[in-house]
Queue: 3 jobs
Job 1
Amino acid sequence: MVINGYILSYINPDTDGVCCALAIAELYKKKGMGEYLPVLSGKLSAETKYVLDKADIDQQLLVTTYEQNKPIILVDTHQLAQLPHLKKSNMVVEIWDHHPDGDVEIFVNAIIHNYKIGAIASKILEKMLESDCLSRSFAILLGSAIVSNTINFTAPSTTKYDIDMFSQALKYFDFNKQYIDGMFQCRDSILNEDCRKILTCDMKCFQINEKKCLIAQIELTSTEKILKNKNIFSEIRKLRINENAYYFVFNVINIQQKKSFLICEDEISKNITEKMFGRFFEGCIMEFEKILLRKTELVPLLSEVLINGKN
Ligand SMILES: [Mn+2]
């Protein structure tokens, strides 16, 4: 088999990143645009494994290494700070993303498709429909990725477009409550791990105004256990110091109650977060009666404070 290129996402990609990488590979193949292999850097989450299982997609389709002299397609990210495994940014030929503040100027050879939507899976699903190559398996992958990224259409990033595309996936598979609950319950399995794994399972790095910022996020159906775990604070401190980060916040989302809890452990991070939201911490936790997402709330507000010094 001649390999024409590779499809990369960030390290420890979520369901959107993994499912879209698989779907783009299928789309390219079906359209006769070449053999692009989806690459997995890091680990699959329990939720993604659940989805791959239902879709009857073998996780062996995801390769773990790639040739650096071949074209690269990026999916679900175009921020260099999240791509330490990407050695040559000039090899990136195409980008499919839905995140703000990408490193647009770095990817000089890439066609960039970046949309303000809840999941990039919505766009890939549309592309598969247009090319008449959406199958049941890929409808399960992409429909699940939309549900996952929009937290079942409750996240502030959700758009009508995501809902419309999901309704197309519904024609192929019954995404019933039991299936979706099963998906989200997978996320709670991370709580069996130690604090470091909990913090790093979905932690992204941002370089904002030359300051290294780390935003860890976790989405759970039950948050009581993690919020009472005192070890989490010392582990945040260790991580922040080891990673030489200027700012660190841990965003704990309760999917059931539609709440967010921001945890900061040091004075600088607390101070910045207080400026972002115009309110104060109680101890190390700031509680919100709504879901905050890294992409739609935290990164834009953090950029505003660090770049414009918003008070
Ligand atoms: Mn995504």
Note: Strands lie at 5-8, 36-38, 72-75, 92-97, 111-114, 203-208, 211-220, 247-254, 259-263, 285-288.
Job 2
Amino acid sequence: MRIYISCDMEGTAGVCSWNQCDPENRDEYPIYRRYMTQEVRAAIEGAREGGATEFLINDSHWSMRNLLWEELPDDVRVVSGAPKPHSMAERIDDGVDAVFLTGYHAKGGDGDGVLAHTFSDETVHRVTVNGTECSEALLVSALAGAHDVPVVLITGDRRIVDETLRALPWATGVAVKDAIGFNAVNSLTPSAAQAAIRTGAREAVASIARAKPFTFTSPVEVVLETVRVENCDYIELMPGFERIAGRSVRFTAPDYATAYRAFVAAVRLGGAANVRA
Ligand SMILES: [Zn+2]
């Protein structure tokens, strides 16, 4: 049984600040990248106890070069580095039986989420797919679903875990912390969080048989609300993208996989406007 793990960092136990997640930060980042890696390792260990045998891990945060190789078992593969065409979901179509999302966080615009954002806090304010407001977790879950693969584990802050379980009620959720504000948490310790993730991963593997792929119906309509007006100045240049407000573009795609790729491209293109002219 082959498990795909997309691991983010802002939803790691203890994390409450960009500084802790910023690879340029020499003080706090080295500490928290270790906790991120240890949470992934805990998920692997729990899944193995449940019968999983193979693991493909996608480092899904910032530079996507966060995981500490020496903290991982030797028999896993890791997708590392950026940019990747499918970003947080790269290689999710690589013949896996189920998906884990670890270290995930509340979506952009959520008032009660720690470090709440969606893909890029500088470019994306909000994104809806077929009218449903989407977190990174839901966007990735739908790409897994497009390949007929279910998401069975979500770990991170309580806001994202609860929200994801409403959309994916068959999944196992492990909330490692509660947001007090954008930059404050009430958190489990890293080691207690890792123990909970290990247990959750074991349960998640046991649930694969009754889990379902999460999908959006086709055609797929995406509305992207950006942070700045100038982000949309660039995005609307792409064929098929319609400017519907100062900070909003809309596009439709024949299927979700195409929509997801267009969304990734739009975020990158819109981000080019964040460099001050
Ligand atoms: Zn993220």
Note: The pocket of zinc ion is lined by residues 8, 10, 105, 136 (CB under 6 Å).
Job 3
Amino acid sequence: MPSSVAQDVRVWLEENWRADTTLREWWRRLAGSGWAFPSWPTGHGGKGLALGDARSVTQELAAAGAVGPPGGLGQMMGGPVIIEHGSDDQRDRWLLPLAAGLESWCQLFSEPGAGSDLASLQTKAVRDGDVWIVSGQKVWTSGARTADRGMLVARTHPEAPKHKGITYFVIDMDQPGVEVRPLRQMDGGATFNEVFFTEAVVPHDQVVGEPSNGWVVAVSTLAYERQGLGGGAGPRPTLAGAPGERNGFLDRKVSELLAEAAERRGEQAAMMASQSFSAMASLARERGRSEDPAVRQGLARLRALGEAHRMSGLRARAAAGAGKMPGPEVSTGKLVTSELGRRARDLSLAIEGAHGMLAGEDAPEAGRFQQMALRVQATSIAGGTDEIQRNIIGERVLGLPREPQVDRDVPFKELAVGTQRGERR
Ligand SMILES: Cc1cc2nc3c(=O)[nH]c(=O)nc-3n(C[C@H](O)[C@H](O)[C@H](O)COP(=O)(O)OP(=O)(O)OC[C@H]3O[C@@H](n4cnc5c(N)ncnc54)[C@H](O)[C@@H]3O)c2cc1C
């Protein structure tokens, strides 16, 4: 029996889904109906439904071949954070434009000296009447070049201990005090950026939560990030176009974007498959290496860990389906994903031997294993590094003593050599 939510979406889609319109118009309709982000409040792109109901919405959109809601960090983390910590005015101002894909947001958290230890951040903001003046540097900011706004954490109270003097802002990116410089990655792409703030301005009414209490808002942002990266319970965003004017998709025909998305999905699938056991086994056969004992052992190890990982995933999904809270399998899952990527990288390049040093069209299979080898590193860093996952497993799963944090209660301005150097510059 389909749920009544599923039935309602189906009826709505029959009347409203059209591929011959622009993306802007389709997302406007989806957000206006509340089916874009069903768990968001009514009138703000949602219907105030439970998170679980969002799954049936995703399924119905996919079954109708309809374009899903806009995806991006603003939609994945910004919206939920504003719902949880923002003011009524902020909810009125930002939620509907996010739900309708009119805005793209980036995450201005990491700095050259603050990644895993985010609370050591040094970008500062000083209040000047109705505005705050921001100076400092962020790094690894995905999508900053096309973002309209950024979720920014900055130090506003250096006399307080490091977790207590941070304020959370939503900053407008298109202003003279914000400079975005792309970083070239080793795989040839440039999705990351450095962002420099030189007396950039944020109105006081764009502070989320209370000034100097931004750590709580940052922690909740990271929780929504983990939830989103792990597949989440929310609606699945579309590959057919990205939100925000600067990404340039809003006035394109939905039918064209769907065709392009189908192609990209194929490329993504091929990239994912490059890490799989079957891709490795067929590479070994093609290169005449499948009788090599070292290669066979590598293949067996990859298969064994891959199967254990798959089964842990099934167990986690079954537990979630039965309404149980996530357990240790979630903590170990990310770690195993990183390890599988590394094993696939090492094994594929070992099978290719000297040909592993070639790139692009000169390499076996047009260099797809080389590209994979250059990208797998990201998994063990993004969303918390492997070492940080091990700390979490040690402390929260194995019950080991907590890592000592000698600087937790010390005023930030009295901390670390790096901080003093930063302030002198
Ligand atoms: C694909 C991708 C996308 C990203 N997008 C964004 C983005 O949009 N916005 C943003 O703000 N950031 C983004 N990041 C940055 C990311 O959050 C950081 O890279 C990550 O938190 C690690 O911080 P770091 O690079 O400063 O490394 P560091 O924290 O300096 O760590 C360096 C090394 O020390 C280890 N280490 C650190 N602390 C400990 C400890 N307590 N115990 C044991 N070992 C430790 C780490 O595991 C690591 O090996 C992105 C990163 C990636 C890979």
Note: Residues 257 and 390 are 41 Å apart (CA to CA).
